[in-house]
Every structure is written in C-alpha cells, then in structure tokens.
Specification:
The chain is of the alpha/beta class. The protein is built from 17 helices and 29 strands. The protein binds beta-D-galactopyranose.
Length: 701
C-alpha cells in the first residue's frame, strides 16, 4: 500500500465535511510559485496511461476486479466521475460520496492517480425537472429533452450555480486526497450544443452585446442594420439569431458564435475558480476537441487551463485518418504553446457513432497512441476503461472489451504499456516544428456563413489540405493564432483567413518585414472582425502587403479545373490578379483569368509575401510549397513511402518517431537506439508494415 494510507470510508448521505485535511501547503506547485499551467501535474506520471473510468455503472465486485486488471495492464491514471452527478447527488443537496471514497482509496492503494471530473456535463433529471428553463433550445425553437447528456443551457444561472456547487462539494471532499492529480471540468464543452437560443440566453446575449458595443448606434453600425431594414432602436428588440425566412444578419450570427464561446468558457471558469479557491495546488483542465470543434475558439480557452488536454477519434472510413490525427495533435500542442499536453481520450478500436464503425487493425492502436506522443502528448488515455453493457455507447470499444482479457485489444493494450514505459524518458521533451499555419476560429465561423461566393471555399478542409501536403514531406506544423507574429518560424501559411482584422494584418506585415516568408491563399483578408468588407479592392487588409489588386472573384464550377503554367491543375477559384508591386511566378493558362497571375511574389522588408489565387491539385500544391519553402531554406525532402517522421528534443537528445501507416515495409536512413526494441541501428532502419520505431540519439549542440 503506497504511502501507508488506511482505507477510509464514510456513511452515505453526508454533506461533505472535510474528509481530508485542507490541501494548503502540499508543495504541488513548483517552488518559484509558477502556476501549474507551466508545469506537468506533479502527481501524473509520464506517460499517463489509463482512461475514463465509470465505476458507478458497475457493481462492487466488478469494481474490485477493475482495480486488479488496471494494475495488470499498468494503468497509472483514470478519469472518474464524468457523468456521475445523479449518483453523487441523487436528490437536491443529498450527497452520496461513499462509493467514490471507496474508489479513491482502492485506486490510491493500487498507485493509480485520479483525474477527477466535475459531473456538470450531465445534470440529473431532478435538476432539469426543477429548472426546465435550463434545458437548451435549438435555433428552430425546439427545447431539447432529457435522457441523453449535455442537456443544459450555458447561460442558465441555475445550471451554473448547481454545477459550481457540486464542484465545490467534490473539492472539499477530495481536494486533499493524495490520489487526486488533476481536475477535469465538465466534458467537451460545446460538443453537442454549440449555443442555446432560449430567452435566458437572449437576455445574456443582449448584455454581452451592450458590453461589446456600449451603445446601440455602434451595434447598428457594426451589424450594418441599415441593410434589409434591420435597425434596432432598443436593446430589447435584439434577438438571438433564430431561424428566419432568409439568412440572419451575418455579424449577428458571428457575434452569437463569440457570445456562445464566452458563455461556455464562463461555465468552465466558474467551476475552475471554485476548485482553485479550495484546492489551489491541484491543476485544472477540461478536455478539448481541438481541430474537430467548430463551436469554441480554443485560443481563448487555452490560457484558462493549467494543462491542455484533448480528445481525438479517427474517422474510421477515411484512409488518411492518421493525417487527421496529426492535425489534431499539432493544433493541440500549439494551443499548449509547445508544452506537453495530455491525450485525454481516444479509442482502443471502433467508436459507436459513425455510420460504419470499423475496428482498428492490429497494431493501429499503438501507432495512433505513438503518433500523439510523437506530437507532444505525455499521456495515452482512452474512452473508456470497461466496455458498457447498457446505454448508447455499449458498442464503443474500451480498454477492457466485452470479451474480457482473452481478447486482441487487451493483449495489444498490455503490450502497449511496455512500449510506453520504454518511452518514459522522452516525457517533457519538446517537438521540433518546421512551418507555421494560421488557425482562426472566427474566420472559420464567418467563412462558412451563408451567401459567400462559393460553398467550395471552406476553412477546415483548406487548412487540412495544406497540413496534409506538409505531413507528406515530414514537415511538422505549428499552428499560429491570428494576430501573433511568429518570427521563430521561417514560413507562415495562411490558407483561409477570410476574416482578418487590421491588427492581424499588421502582425503579418511585421512578420514579413522581419524576414518571414508568408504565403496567403485567395479569399483571405476580405472582411474585418465585424464581417464588413475592407474598403477598396481585394484582398483588402492584405492587398498592400501582397502587392496585388483583385477587382472581382471568379469562383469555378464544381469539379471545373483550370491549367496553371507550372503544368499542374487547379480548381474552386480563379480571379483577375493585378500586380501592384508583386511579380508573377505562375499564371493561369486557361479559364476566366487566362494569362493572368495565379501565384505572385512580393519582396517586403527582409521577407517575402506570396499570394496564391487558386486551389491547386495535390501535385500543384506540393510544387507551390516546394517553391516557397525552398526560398525560405526549409528542406523539401522526398518521402515516397509516406513514413510519418516526428522529432522530440531535450537538450542534445533527440527522439525520432518513425511511424509506418502503410501496408508495406519501409527502409529509411536513420541512426540510433530503438527504445521499443533496444536494438541499435546504424545507417538504415526498417519500419515494418503498420509498425513503429522510436530512435534515441545524441545531436551536436
Ligand atoms: C467523447 C466523449 C466521451 C465518449 C466518446 C465516445 O466525445 O467525451 O464521453 O462519448 O466521445 O467516442
């Protein structure tokens, strides 16, 4: 039994007096007083290995078996209580902690730390019955029901109060328990309900707008309400953007997105502050869905968590889902500003919510896990520990499948634990990055509103296409927040920055003037933060920096292609580019802008600003990037086998992750000690089909 702690149990129904001494000076924060946001949670081992554990769904004998099996699998951390509110508080104000006390003690004795969730993602039925106004309402005015999860309006004061109350109860009860490593507030905020259109939300929206604009004139101006006679003479006339006969005012919709983000963030921060007040030494997180969440602007969330954590699920039927995994992990690490992050959830095999839930192939779980670790996660956690027998997720894979330990998934899991143990020394090392891409949620929101020049111009897909092209060349991406000036990156790519404030445009100019190589795609820099078109010709805010002038857009037919002078083809977009300082690198050979520039280059200060006026096919994009990165001195290497190569570094030690997602063996030129097998490689390494190699080597300083 570690630390000699005795089992502690309490009678049920107690309203949580302090069970453990207050967690004052437990020395969990670094000595210099830095918040945990700059440090890995001290009680969480690296790599953290485990998953969501829902003991309330199982009888005591199963819970006992759980702990034994967790030990045999090498689990060292579990997330407990995510949806346990109704079990913890079966009636208003009556708490049942006994079962959780027992779980804590058993885990503690098994040397497994607890990531304790506040259960606010799933308010109990009694709560919703008592406060029906806390149920969320859709854009069409439908109030959503119970019997599922996430049935709450983020603006509901009753909901926020109750969520904070149960968080406080948990903090007082378990705050000083030595097994508690990390708080996990709620679950995937904004996953199922992106915003609520009820009257409570409407009042909150009006208050939010007053704070943003100050007076109605400013709002009328920003929203352009002179158009279609939408002018407001009183704050009470403004509504949330409910379904209407024609598209609702785009700025109103955009502000509603911002407002909804802020409301969910306020829910999180409200709970976090309660937790911090009672347990100042225990770091707090909430699980993001980084690149898969269109509803939240995680750049605004990341500074509010002590540790960035993320959930990722493969799209099973996509043959390139491992590249999408890389995108998610790269964005997560970027949100963490390069620091170690936590993979909170992924799946051992199939999920249950896609049209066809394909099982992972043998070895795929390990490869997926290592791909997250390669990109900076110091944890491998799963949803969930034991496969459910009942409920909506019973066909979702788990660490312990229905078939039990005599199963492929279990055997692979046990093997994986060994692999992760041998990688423990890489914990805390940082990922080497090569190229920046701007990722901006407001641009995503604004770009995909109605009435744009072409539905083929999208945000996520545009970014993913560029990320994929770099992945195929083994270049690791750092995502950059709009408005930042990442002078440490030689190249910054801007695939789709439709919404671009003056401040963001200034930051991009500064980046180029100081020597950066910037590549901007069509339909970027078009509107300001209120979705108003920047005055003058396109691309508005970026026109002078790019040295071009565009009078109108020429979106193409679906599947139409034009030829470019570089011998490649392009689709989606064409436009008549006038040169105002830039020079032509490639031109359109046919289409609406035949003979006109399709790729331009403008020298500004110490750097170069490139402009791409169309969407080249895969080979064309590869050629553009080769050109731009070549000038910036970033090596554009052949990678014919699509081997995934990522580097983590600590001092002069380098960890090279070689992940082969293909069905063919790959031989590559590398040296080093394979931490997974203990074999030393000199000159060449063979990575088997679907296999992985992690080399450690020393680099000259
Ligand atoms: C996540 C969620 C988990 C579980 C999982 C299934 O989005 O946080 O609770 O539902 O999906 O894939």
């Amino acid at each position: 039994m570690p630390h000699g702690v005795e089992a502690r149990t309490r009678p049920e129904d107690e309203t949580s007096p302090l069970l453990f001494p207050p967690s004052g000076a437990t020395g969990l924060l670094p000595a210099d007083g830095r918040r945990a946001s700059q440090a890995w949670p001290p009680r969480l081992r690296r790599p953290a290995f485990g998953g969501d554990y829902n003991p309330e769904q199982w009888p005591p004998e199963t819970r006992r078996e759980d702990i034994e099996l967790m030990r045999s699998a090498g689990v060292n951390a579990v997330t407990v209580g995510v949806f346990a509110w109704a079990t913890l508080e079966p009636e208003p104000g009556r708490y049942e902690f006994c079962w959780l006390d027992d779980v804590f003690e058993r885990l503690y004795r098994a040397d497994i730390v607890v990531v304790l969730a506040t259960p606010s993602a799933s308010p109990p039925a009694w709560f919703s019955k008592a406060h029906p106004s806390s149920l969320p309402v859709t854009r069409e005015g439908v109030r959503l029901g119970l019997g599922s999860r996430e049935s709450f309006c983020p603006s509901s004061p009753e909901y926020r109060r109750a969520a904070q109350e149960i968080a406080g109860q948990l903090a007082r009860r378990y705050g000083a328990h030595p097994a508690l490593a990390l708080w996990h507030v709620g679950n995937e905020f904004g996953a199922h309900v992106g915003g609520c259109y009820c009257s409570v939300s409407q009042d909150a929206f009006r208050a939010w707008l007053r704070a943003r604009y100050g007076d109605l004139e400013a709002l009328n101006e920003a929203w352009g309400t002179a158009f279609w006679g939408q002018r407001y003479g009183d704050w009470d006339e403004i509504t949330v953007p409910r379904a209407a006969p024609m598209p609702v005012n785009p700025t109103q919709q955009l502000d509603f997105r911002r407002f909804s983000n802020d409301e969910f963030l306020a829910c999180y921060c409200g709970e976090r502050d309660v937790l911090r007040a009672i347990t100042p030494d225990i770091p707090v997180t909430t699980n993001f869905m980084s690149s898969d969440c269109p509803n939240l602007d995680y750049w605004t969330w990341a500074p509010e968590v002590d540790l960035v954590s993320n959930d990722h699920y493969l799209t099973a039927e996509s043959p390139e889902n491992h590249i999408d995994l890389a995108l998610s992990a790269d964005l997560t690490r970027s949100l963490a500003r390069g620091r170690a992050w936590m993979l909170m959830e992924h799946s051992t095999s199939a999920v249950n919510w896609q049209p066809r839930n394909l099982a992972k192939a043998p070895g795929e779980m390990l490869r997926n896990s290592l791909a997250h670790v390669a990109r900076g996660s110091d944890s491998v956690m799963f949803f969930q520990w034991r496969a459910s027998r009942r409920g909506a997720e019973k066909f979702h894979s788990a660490m312990l499948p229905h078939a039990g330990t005599d199963s492929r998934v279990w055997r692979e899991l046990v093997e994986m634990r060994q692999a992760l143990t041998s990688l423990a020394e890489a914990g805390g090392s940082t990922v080497a990055t090569d190229v920046g891409i701007v990722w901006d949620w407001p641009s995503w929101w604004a770009l995909e509103l109605e009435c744009r020049p072409s539905i083929d111009v999208t945000f996520r897909e545009a970014v993913a296409t560029v990320h994929r092209a770099l992945w195929q060349r083994n270049l690791t991406v750092e995502f950059v927040r709009a408005g930042d000036c990442p002078t440490h990156l030689p190249v910054l790519l801007v695939p789709s920055l439709y919404l671009c404030s003056k401040a963001t445009a200034d930051a991009l100019r500064q980046y180029v003037e100081q020597g950066g190589h910037l590549l901007v795609w069509f339909f970027s820099g078009i509107v300001d933060e209120t979705d108003a078109v920047h005055p003058g010709a396109y691309p508005g805010a970026l026109r002078d920096l790019l040295g071009v002038r565009v009078e109108e857009f020429h979106p193409l037919h679906r599947d139409e292609q034009v030829r470019l002078s570089c011998a490649h083809r392009a689709g989606t977009w064409s436009e008549p580019v006038g040169l105002r300082g830039a020079e032509t690198v490639w031109h359109f050979e046919n289409g609406p802008d035949a003979e006109g520039p399709s790729l331009t280059r403008h020298l500004v200060g110490q750097g170069t600003a490139w402009y791409l006026a169309t969407s080249p096919d895969a080979q064309g994009l590869d050629a553009v990037l080769a050109h731009v990165l070549g000038e910036a001195g970033v090596p554009w290497q052949e990678n014919p086998d699509d081997l995934d190569v990522v580097r983590r570094r600590a001092g002069n030690t380098e960890y090279v992750f070689l992940l082969n997602h293909s069905e063919n063996g790959v031989t590559t030129q590398q040296d080093g000690l394979d931490l997974l097998t203990g074999r030393t490689h000199e000159g060449t390494v063979e990575v088997p089909p679907g296999g992985a190699v992690v080399l450690r080597r020393t680099t000259p300083h």
